[in-house]
Amino acid sequence: MSSGGAQAADDINAVAERYAHLVLALGQHDPDYVDAFYGPPEWKTQAEKEKKSLDAIGAEAVELSATLAKTPNAGDELLRFRHEYLQKQVAALAARVRMLKGEKLRFDDESRALYDAVAPTFPDSHFNQFIAQLDAKIPGKGPSRTGGSLWERYEMWRKPFVIPKEKLDTVFQLAIKECRARTLAHVALPPTESFSVEYVTNKPWGGYNWYKGNFHSVIQVNTDLPIFIDRAVDLAAHEGYSGHHVYNSLLEKNLVRDRGWLESPVYALFSPQSLVAEGTANF
């Protein structure tokens, strides 16, 4: 690496470390904000001790954006990628600060500010065509005859596919095993990666992946909700292989350990990174 390239890397690393500290600082005000952190433990301890105000975090985010704008990004493709990534992540952090301070945004404005994306819109006719296809396939008659509405017929049709709670772990472990085998046929994973499952209640979601670092994830499955056979495969793939667990394991391997990127051990939930994480988990 040339001296200019080394200096550019040092400059971006300095910004990256400040960004990571800001994410942890904001996590003191928003318990959902830091989805994962496996960086130096003293960084988290520092955030807990300092307990920076939202005003201070917001001001630092503005300053960091200005610093980043002056940081050279000429060089290899990865340097340009990091520069753009940090720009968008810092901007999203600043937006989250404003929201926590009371700023209200319209739906599209909020998604643009936090995730750098706006959901597409479709006319009713777009959805009506799919409803018509389902109506023709789901057993029973429509409300104009007998048999109930489409959603009632659908619920009746899928009832036999609910996994009994006593068989849930067996089914889930088999789903994970098969998803992992299919992933390994295409993706090289760290040899020590691992994945465990916990069954929980009283959660607002059906399933969640908690990445712990060292290539290990914990997936929690909410058993308050009925879990259908297709959902077991969906959760195993989305939360595990080749979804969130694989995504985070590869980030840790390729960016944190191999390249020393200081922004990568912290995952801000309300940020453009989540759009990428959810998209790759659903792909």
Architecture overview:
The chain is globular, with a radius of gyration of 22 Å. The strands form two sheets. The chain has a three-stranded mixed β-sheet, with helices on one face. A two-stranded antiparallel ribbon has the order 1-5. 57% of the residues lie in helices and 10% in strands. It has eleven helices and five strands, in the order H-E-H-H-H-H-H-H-H-E-E-E-H-H-E-H. It folds into three domains: 3-115, no CATH class; 122-161, no CATH class; 162-282, no CATH class. It is mainly α and 283 residues long. The two termini are 36 Å apart. Strand 3 (207-213) and strand 4 form a beta hairpin. Helix 1 (3-27) runs parallel beside helix 4 and helix 4 packs across helix 5.
Short description:
With 283 residues, the chain is mostly helical. It has helices at residues 3-27, 41-50, 54-70, 77-100, 107-115, 124-137, 150-158, 168-184, 229-240, 244-257, 272-282; strands at 34-37, 194-200, 207-213, 216-222, 266-268. Helix content is 57%, strand content 10%.
Q: Helicity level, as a percent range?
A: 55-70%
Query: What's the N-to-C terminus distance?
Result: 36 Å
The neighbouring-strand order within the major sheet is 2-4-3
Order of helices and strands: HEHHHHHHHEEEHHEH
Number of domains: 3
**Mean pLDDT, all residues:** 93
Total number of strands? 5
What integer value in Å does the Rg equal?
Answer: 22 Å
Number of helices: 11
**Strand portion, in percent?**
5-15%
